């Protein structure tokens, strides 16, 4: 997502308490490597993956192979019937397992067609199958519920509102960072990717859209229409998009014939056309630097909302209308930012939330690089200003790769992290930096990757040990000297 977050009071105590509680709950969590013998005694899957920011997010003991989401959409702000069918594989012998699921009214859960026991506590839905699941077993969980499309949560950082975002005639969704669970029961952590099939029925005067490709539009029951979308590639739950409304679908092609489909509320088609048509140029510009666009299609979903920020939902970025009705410089910064995320954050997913700097730092880096060449501010001047504030940001928001949960989406993860990439480029030179970037999006395409992965890859690609250079930038309490700019100064933190 993109925006200019404002500093907020810290909440280190609350975080420390949350981590302590969650650590007690999850214990030593491994990423699904537990259990070495097929006859291991069945045990509960971990309720969380132990993420440093959100320890209970995601779940242990299984991997999701595919989600099939059926939504019987009725009207804005109106509850509707929904079914999530989750195909998964047990990675340990399971006596029970958890899904992340918040709010909504749960009706029933089956595992392989048999009624399962359920218990809910906070955002944890514990499912106990009739018989334990052996390690390696494929199984199907079916959850029926009444979805409440008014559910929104709030963060006091750049995210602000997330979850379901109602529009005048329908909805869009904003799942980042962990609001997907308000939409469907999920393994809700960015490292956990799976393909999704969406089947959404709507009244016939509305259009439903979702990530990926429209594979079928057919008559539904009564006077309704059923829309089926396939995500084509796996995606993280935080990158899910589904929207319903009175939309015009604006089809074009981009570089290499890439299908571009914008989804635009009817009244906003003409007023937003000029900036939306720049997507093909943005794709060409980014592909020159990063190599091939990583997905089969792209488009902009124009949000008819007062939402403050855009979101890089996979293959279909959500862009609030205000971002497309201002100046061209501002519009292009937001558009290039979300498009850059399709490489950084979407195609290469986050291994943990502490790796957010990789995704937001790159999105801001290329957004600023593009903007400088297209009528915007000087990149160097912006980086010099970020350098000046960097010690203060380290103190207020945590070092780039060491965020605290309340300060996750603060300026340090945007300009503060673009600055780390700027420093790296100054240190290794532009040609070597471009080699690192290409290698990153190529080697980790379709995978989750961590900060350490980035440091290791940068060292490998350049043939020099960059650990000693990057670690102080990413984790230190003090900002290191900026290579090539001995005159740059950091203001002391107060
Ligand atoms: Zn972003």
Explained architecture:
The protein contains 10 helices and 25 strands. The chain has helices spanning 12-26, 269-276, 279-290, 328-343, 356-373, 379-397, 415-428, 430-443, 451-462, 467-475; strands at residues 43-44, 62-72, 80-90, 94-100, 105-111, 114-115, 117-121, 124-128, 138-147, 152-154, 161-167, 170-174, 193-194, 196-203, 207-210, 213-219, 224-230, 235-236, 242-245, 247-253, 259-265, 300-303, 317-320, 349-350, 448-449. Residues 4-36 have low confidence and may be disordered. With 494 residues, it is an alpha+beta fold. The chain has a domain at 45-245: Immunoglobulin-like (Sandwich), CATH 2.60.40.1730. Helix 6 packs across helix 7 and helix 8 crosses helix 9. The chain is globular and about 70 Å long. Bound molecules: zinc ion.
Span between termini: 29 Å
Which residue ranges are poorly predicted, with pLDDT under 50 across at least 5 consecutive positions? 4-36
Strand content: 25-35%
- Helix content estimate: 25-40%
Bound compounds, each kind once, are: zinc ion
CATH homologous superfamily classification of the domain at 45-245? tricorn interacting facor f3 domain
Using only C-alpha atoms, the radius of gyration works out to 22 Å
How would you classify the quaternary structure?
single chain
Q: What is the approximate shape?
A: globular
CATH domain topology of the domain at 45-245: Immunoglobulin-like
Major sheet description: 8 strands, mixed
Structural class: alpha+beta
Total strand segments? 25
């Amino acid at each position: 997502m993109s925006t200019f977050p404002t500093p907020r009071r810290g909440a280190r105590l609350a975080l420390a308490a949350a981590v302590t509680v969650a650590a007690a709950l999850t214990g030593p969590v491994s990423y699904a490597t537990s259990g070495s013998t097929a006859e291991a005694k069945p045990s509960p899957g971990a309720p969380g993956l132990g993420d440093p920011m959100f320890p209970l997010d995601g779940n242990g003991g299984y991997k999701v192979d595919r989600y099939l989401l059926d939504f019987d959409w009725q009207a804005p702000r109106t509850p509707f019937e929904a079914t999530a069918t989750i195909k998964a594989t047990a990675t340990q012998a399971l006596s029970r397992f958890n899904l992340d699921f918040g709010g909504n009214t749960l009706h029933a859960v089956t595992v392989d067609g048999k009624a399962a026991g359920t218990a809910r506590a906070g955002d944890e839905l514990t499912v106990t199958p009739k018989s334990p699941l052996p390690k390696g077993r494929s199984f199907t969980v079916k959850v029926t519920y009444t979805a409440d499309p008014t559910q929104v949560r709030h963060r006091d950082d750049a995210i602000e509102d997330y979850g379901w975002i109602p529009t005048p005639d329908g909805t869009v969704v904003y799942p980042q960072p962990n609001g997907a669970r308000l939409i469907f029961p999920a393994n809700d952590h960015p490292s956990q990717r799976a393909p999704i099939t969406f089947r959404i029925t709507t009244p016939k005067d509305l259009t439903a859209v979702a990530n990926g490709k429209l594979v079928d539009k057919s008559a539904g029951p009564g006077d309704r229409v059923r829309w089926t979308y396939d995500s084509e590639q796996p995606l993280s739950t935080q990158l899910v998009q589904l929207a319903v409304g009175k939309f015009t679908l604006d089809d074009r092609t981009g570089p290499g014939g890439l299908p571009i489909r914008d989804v635009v509320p009817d009244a906003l088609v003409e007023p937003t056309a000029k900036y939306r048509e720049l997507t093909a140029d943005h794709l060409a510009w980014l592909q020159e630097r990063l190599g091939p666009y990583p997905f089969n299609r792209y488009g902009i979903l124009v949000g008819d909302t007062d939402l403050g920020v855009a979101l890089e939902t996979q293959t279909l970025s959500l862009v609030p209308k205000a971002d497309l009705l201002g100046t061209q410089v501002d519009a292009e910064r937001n558009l290039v930012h979300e498009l850059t995320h399709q490489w950084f954050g979407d195609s290469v997913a986050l291994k943990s939330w502490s790796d957010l700097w990789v995704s937001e730092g790159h999105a801001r880096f290329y957004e600023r690089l593009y903007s400088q060449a297209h009528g915007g501010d000087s990149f160097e001047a912006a980086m010099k200003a970020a350098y000046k504030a960097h010690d203060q940001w380290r103190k207020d928001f945590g070092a780039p790769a060491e965020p605290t949960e309340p300060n996750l989406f603060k300026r340090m993860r945007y300009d503060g992290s673009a600055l780390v990439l700027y420093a790296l480029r100054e240190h290794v030179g532009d040609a070597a930096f471009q080699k690192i970037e290409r290698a990153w999006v190529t080697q980790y395409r379709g995978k989750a990757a961590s900060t350490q992965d980035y440091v290791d890859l940068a060292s490998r690609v350049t043939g020099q040990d960059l650990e000693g250079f990057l670690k102080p930038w990413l984790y230190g309490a003090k900002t290191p000297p900026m290579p090539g700019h001995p005159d740059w100064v950091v203001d002391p933190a107060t």
